Amino acid sequence: MDEVLLAERLIAYDTSRRSGIGQATDFVAGWLEARGASVERRENGGRRSLAARVGAGPLRLIFHAHIDVVPGHPEQFVPRVEGGRLYGRGAYDMKAALGAMMLAVADLASEPLDGALVELVVVPDEERSEPGENCTQMMVRDGLRADFVVCGEPTDMDVGVQAKGVLMLRVDVPGTAAHGATPWLGDNAVLRAVDLFRGIGDLPFAAESAPLFERPSLNLGLIQGGDAVNKVPDHCRMHVDVRYLPTQSPDEVLAQVRSLDPLADVQVVLERPPADVSPDHPLVRALLGAAGRHEPSAASVGRDGASDAVAFIEVGVPAVEFGPRGAGHHGPEEYVEIASLPRYRRALVEFARSVAAMPAPAPRDEAAL
């Protein structure tokens, strides 16, 4: 199956590393050029992205994919097929989706596509958690626009019309040093930090829900404290990943966290707003229709994780997440369901052709955006 072979090739590149990202990007560019797509290489902030185009017309679609992955063990970059599943780092998030998008673009290039321009944008840094803009944000700031964007993030063939917002916090917690043999004479900053994190889970915002979400998400991702085993640590730094609901205010969430310990210094390292696109948007309905012909249970859903869809939504471009079935992204046994890949590919092709048959949109008012 072409979808599996291409996904296996992509998984084999360790794209948690800069060198692997470069090799994989070169492969994707060459593969698309060999199949009739016009490929443009773009550089933003010293990082390289690709844009492959097929078709022509007044309507413009973007298929958006990222080639980078979170770090994994060496064996996770050796793809394996087992029980109808393809395992490997990035199989679900989102190299199998990228491979299917590449095949969909090749399918669309093989026959004339009049009425719509389809652009596959491949970026190297969606997974980054450092401050500052990523490539998608920079390209959107420089004028990248479309009538609709499909981000190939994992959704199990549903269409993600909402996603939680992101508040990544750095929390510095003070303590009082003492000898390790007499810890009662000190104030352990590590234990104090853990108590603070647990307290975040008891805050009012953490108990709220929304129509598409049961609750916000909280994760203690990094914690560093202490400099000797026989000493009570007098400082601890932790990084907390808060994913808040589209109905919540990030300022209120931050205020509640800061109220827990007046001596703790809480700073925002990274903030991204939630995503929210109407499920009644004509192109959302068109995508759901194409997905539903291959996955009858396809529906509009909320997504816990963030994606580059937000960068487009912020400038008035509707963007959703849509990807194949699987599980375990960022975990030790990440996989994609093989049977969903050809269905996903066909849904993308049918969606693009249905959009190409739609009436031309009204001229865009860039000044209003």
Structural write-up:
The protein is of the alpha+beta class and 369 residues long. It folds into two domains: 2-163 and 274-356, 3-Layer(aba) Sandwich (Aminopeptidase), CATH 3.40.630.10; 165-272, Alpha-Beta Plaits (2-Layer Sandwich). 29% of the residues lie in helices and 28% in strands. The chain is built from nine helices and 16 strands. It has helices at residues 2-11, 18-33, 91-110, 135-141, 189-200, 250-258, 282-292, 309-313, 340-356; strands at residues 38-44, 47-66, 80-82, 85-87, 114-123, 148-151, 159-163, 165-174, 217-225, 235-244, 265-272, 275-276, 300-303, 319-322, 326-327, 335-337. The strands form three sheets. Strands 1, 2, 5, 6, 7, 12, 13 and 14 form an eight-stranded mixed β-sheet that branches. The chain has a four-stranded antiparallel β-sheet with strand order 3-4-16-15. A four-stranded antiparallel β-sheet has the order 9-10-8-11. α1 crosses α3 (91-110). The longest helix is centred in the first third of the chain and has 20 residues, at 91-110. Residues 365-369 have low confidence and may be disordered.
